[in-house]
């Protein structure tokens, strides 16, 4: 038997396959309206909104996952297992998205949806810490440290969203979108750092 170790590239390839399947499952849940009118699209707004938010979430996760693996030199057992935990939790997103859309954003599905975001973010932080443990001192720039703090900010906000979403599902989903905006703003970690100083 070969003693060759798993490479980060192989781990990334496996993860990319899982991400592709998750997105495909979400797309298969999209159903066209029965009638050939624009009015028939209106009742589908919960489905379209749920899909758009989930797709954006998965896209952000993939970008961050890809970025983190650039700091790794070896796919250690710890890195592999945190990656699988992270991917498992992400794989719950299509089912919860479909449930949320089918119930037209009812309280319980939106609450569980927000809770899944909390679990995914928690696993991401563990994966992030494991990946960055292989980075050299020169790789860990002040800006990278501020970006990693963003993960903890997002976790705290997702946790708050779970409470809000149970009482006001639309407000909860709107807050989820606000949290996702944290990841879309490349300058936000720098702005937060300046406001704290």
Characterize the structure shown.
The chain has helices at residues 8-28, 45-69, 77-90, 93-102, 107-132, 142-167, 169-184, 188-196. The chain has 197 residues and is mainly α. The chain has one domain. The longest helix is centred in the middle third of the chain and has 26 residues, at 107-132. Mean pLDDT is 85; it is low at 187-197.
Q: Keywords, please?
A:
75% helix, mainly alpha, 197 residues, disordered C terminus, 8 helices, single chain
Task: Give me a quick take on this structure.
By secondary structure, this protein is an all-alpha fold. 75% of the residues lie in helices and 0% in strands.
What portion of residues is helical? over 70%
Helix count equals 8
What general outline do the C-alpha atoms trace?
globular
SSE topology string? HHHHHHHH
> What's the number of extended β-strand segments?
0
Describe the secondary structure blueprint for this structure:
Blueprint: H1 8-28, H2 45-69, H3 77-90, H4 93-102, H5 107-132, H6 142-167, H7 169-184, H8 188-196
Helix pairs in contact: 1-2, 1-3, 1-4, 2-4, 2-5, 2-7, 3-5, 4-5, 5-6, 5-7, 6-7, 6-8
